[in-house]
Amino acid sequence: MLQIKNNIEITNNDIKYAENILLKKWESFDTERKDFIKNLDTIDLQAVPWSWKTTALLAKLLILGKKMPFPDGSGILVLSHTNTAVDEIKEKLWKIAPKLFEFPNFIWTIQEFVNTFLAKPYWVNYLGIRFQHIDTDYYENKIVKKFRKIYWDKDYDKVWNLFRFRHSKKSEKESSDPEEIKIICNKYIDDEVKWLFYDFLDNKIKIFWVDKAILVDKTNRKFQWLKKIVFDLLSEWIISYDYAYNLWFKYIRDYPKIIKILQNRFKFVFVDEMQDMDEKQNRILEKLFYKKKILNHCFQRIGDINQAIYSWKKISEKFYWKNIKNRKTLKIRGSHRLTQKVSKVVQNFWLNYVDITWKRKINGLDNRDISKKPMLLIYNNSHLNDSESSPIVEDNKILEKFSDIIKKKKDEWYFEGVEKIVSKAIIWNAKPQEKWFKIEQCRVKHYFYDYDNVWAKSKHKTWFEKEKDYLVYYDKEDKSYKSKYNNIVRLFLKILRKYDIKNDNEKYFNKISLLKYLQEEDLEKYKNFKEELFIFSKKLNSSNVDYIAWELDAFFERILEEIFGKKIILKIKDSKISTNINITDLSDKKNNIYTNNDIDVEVWTVHSVKWETHTCTLYMESSSNWYESREKIKYKSFLWEDFCWTPSHGKQAMKMLYVWLSRPTHLLCYAIHEDRYNELLEVAWWNESKIEKLWKICKL
User: Fold this and answer.
1) Is the dihedral of CA 342, 348, 352, 357 positive or negative?
2) What pLDDT is stored for residue 543 in this prediction?
3) What are the distances in angstroms from CA 317 to CA 246, 272, 654?
4) Taking a C-beta distance cutoff of 8 angstroms, is the pair 481, 537 a contact?
5) Is 357 exposed, middle or buried (0-12, 13-18, 19+ CB in 10 A)?
6) Are 463 and 138 in contact (CB under 8 A)?
7) Dihedral angle over CA of 258, 260, 264, 270, nearest 10
8) Dihedrals φ, ψ of 52, to 5°?
9) Contact 377, 403 (CB under 8 A)
10) Residue pair 638/691 in contact by the 8 Å Cβ criterion
């Protein structure tokens, strides 16, 4: 059935045009996907993992882009939670539909949308401030440093006491040593202070992740000084991503006309990965674009609600993406990634019912031979690293078994047709145990002691507290040197900020403004600067960090003197990069990768692989006062399709496992301790055949 919106309709011929561009010769969109592509109403689209939902969205955008400009001059707004989906859209459509990336359209993340259309305009138009940095890491680090300078000062009413009373008892439970208690307490305080903000809506001092006021009395000296710390930071043009949302709600209250302005500009609004939007982001979208009386308006939310694993401090059991009465929901049930037997397992871990249909094909033929049962790898304490001081490499028994299985299947031609075998071991809790190494509370280092938590976090991180980290945590697989180059530039920018070196407009430099400044100052020096940075990038490796740091000291000093003058050098004479470098026992080994039998297994957290597709995936259960499998036993998802509700932890684990189970194309393994496997057997009335209906049992 054809639908017309703003005198625009999508026909079967339009879909055929998109298929020829986006799909392989033997592929085509089925009825479910065609129904979505043609639909131009305000709807929700619920899709299973790897259902081609984003491809269907690409087809719709490609077709709409061909029909632009629209008669009313309006545009298309496409938003996602992260850059992943945005990058995919740009990569696929940039060349063939360039109009989509021109005014009046906007294709970006929800965060960039808020920054561009809501937060920045409010500060520019109402407060006359242009923010230089919208960066949560940078904001948090700066506010903690400012707080530390004054927290014992009597003039500031010993503001530290406001936090100490809340955390002292908790710290005392973790240690009996007074000095250690103080360190632990300070860490808790720092973790809370970095979330401090002044709420412009109700003029209270609050904590972001709880949105609870800690000070409300404006005459209180602690209130006044904490407000001053926040405003000092804002006056330096630094703000966190989360603060941007607070500014938006202030903007919308003070200037409600912005709603109509945005509605008129964007008549077609598509939100991909909607399940990842948090409560604030969801409120923004509903406030702006969902009104029953908006005529000729298309607002479509697209995603998989069972993959909603993002929340503030933990994986929430709540769903912020909720069905609205009378809003139509379309569904795509067919998965093009999952094998038939893996599909049967995945659909048992839903919190919102899902029926996954197996639609996987290779070279146009049904891939029936590839379907193998997922494997339960049953281990005991002897297979784990149980020593903090002297870990033994051979103790990576579970990863060793996983790689052996991959090697065996590779030798059996199980991965025939796969260009590169991507194998990943995933864990939920990668948080290090700072005080003890209890095998009863299993975490990532029990499985793989060489796991580097800083490296894991650096995968998507662009700012580090320590200078040395810029020279250590780069993408070792990047053969183009881009990762090293960008890190060295960021290191230079950090030095400029550290010593308060600004441009002619009294603003801190970013990468673009720095290069532009150098180019305008001296074109020859600009070329030399880029050329030498590239040379440093080529030379840098894990065995020469100290030497490169020493060379960078001299290079940065020379550049600063040539560009900014000798007075700048006096500021930095006593602070060399190399004095902060103390790298020992660094080799050229790959970060967070276990290698055995020429099989590389990357070790990551579930959050870091959420959008990925792997050839082989291993999930290693971990403890956060409870285990994933133990939480599942209550409603038997490991055994069959029976389902019953469970407390908060169980719902969180269900979400996490649904995401993880749906990653692999070929091989799926789950590492479970024999104690918890025996509990699982007890639920199955000690009938292992019930478990074997879905899983292949492998005891280490």
Assistant:
1) positive
2) 61
3) 24, 21, 9
4) yes
5) middle
6) yes
7) 80
8) 70, 25
9) no
10) yes
| Cα 376 to Cα 667: distance, rounded to the nearest angstrom | 11
Instruction: Please measure the distance between the N-terminal and C-terminal CA atoms of the chain and give it in whole angstroms.
Output: 56
**How far is residue 655's CA from residue 532's CA, in Å, rounded to a whole number?**
48
Please give the Cα distance from 485 to 531 (Å, whole number). Answer: 10
Q: What are the residue boundaries of the structural domains of the chain, listed by start?
A: 4-116+256-332, 136-239, 357-451+592-699, 457-580
Q: Is residue 298 a contact partner of residue 5, using CB atoms and an 8 Å limit?
A: yes
What pLDDT, on the 0 to 100 scale, is given for residue 325? Answer: 58
Please give the CATH number for the structural domain made up of 357-451+592-699: 3.40.50
Give CA separation, 640 vs 119, 378, 664, 690, in Å.
49, 19, 21, 8
| C-beta of residue 518 within 8 angstroms of C-beta of residue 525 | yes
Q: What is the DSSP letter of 329?
A: E
Query: Do 587 and 474 form a contact (C-beta atoms < 8 A)?
Result: no
> pTM of this prediction?
0.71
Candidates 546, 527, 540; CA nearest to 481 is 540
Helix (H) or strand (E) holding 619: strand 614-620
Sheet holding 298-303, edge to edge: 106-109, 75-80, 266-271, 298-303, 43-47, 328-332
Which ranges constitute the DSSP H helices of 387-452?
Answer: 397-411, 444-447
CA–CA gap between residue 109 and residue 113 (Å, rounded): 6
Number of CB atoms found within 10 A of residue 237's CB? 16
Q: In the numeric block, which tokens belong to residue 136? A: 């949560």
DSSP designation for 202: T
Burial pattern 621-645, b for ≥16 Cβ within 10 A else e, equals bbbbeebbbbbbbebbbbbeeeeee
357-451+592-699 shares the fold of 4-116+256-332: yes
Helix (H) or strand (E) holding 556: helix 545-564
Q: Please give the class, per CATH, of domain 4-116+256-332.
A: alpha beta
Burial class, 418, CB count within 10 angstroms (exposed 0-12 / middle 13-18 / buried 19+): middle
- For every residue of 345-395, which 3-state class applies, written as one string? HHHHHCCCCCCCEECCEECCEECCCCCCCCEEEEECHHHCCCCCCCCCHHH
Q: At what angle do helices 53-66 and 12-22 cross, to 10 degrees?
A: 120
Secondary structure letter of residue 686 according to DSSP: T
Tell me the C-alpha to C-alpha distance, in Å, between residue 591 and each of 44, 69, 393, 549.
40, 48, 15, 21
Q: Which residues in the chain come in under a pLDDT of 70?
A: 1-6, 126-133, 151-157, 211, 291-295, 308-326, 336-337, 348-371, 386-395, 430-441, 452-466, 475-480, 505-507, 542-543, 565-591, 607-611, 624-652, 684-686
pLDDT in the model for residue 255: 87
* Pick from 611, 700, 586: nearest CA to 662: 611
Please write the tens of the pLDDT for every residue from 553-589.
888 878 777 777 654 555 555 444 443 443 333 344 4
Residue 386 C-alpha from the chain's centroid: 31
618 DSSP β-pair partners: 425, 669
A 10 A CB-CB count for 585 gives 4
Q: Are 615 and 425 in contact (CB under 8 A)?
A: no
- The rounded distance, in Å, linking the Cα atoms of 391 and 579 is 30
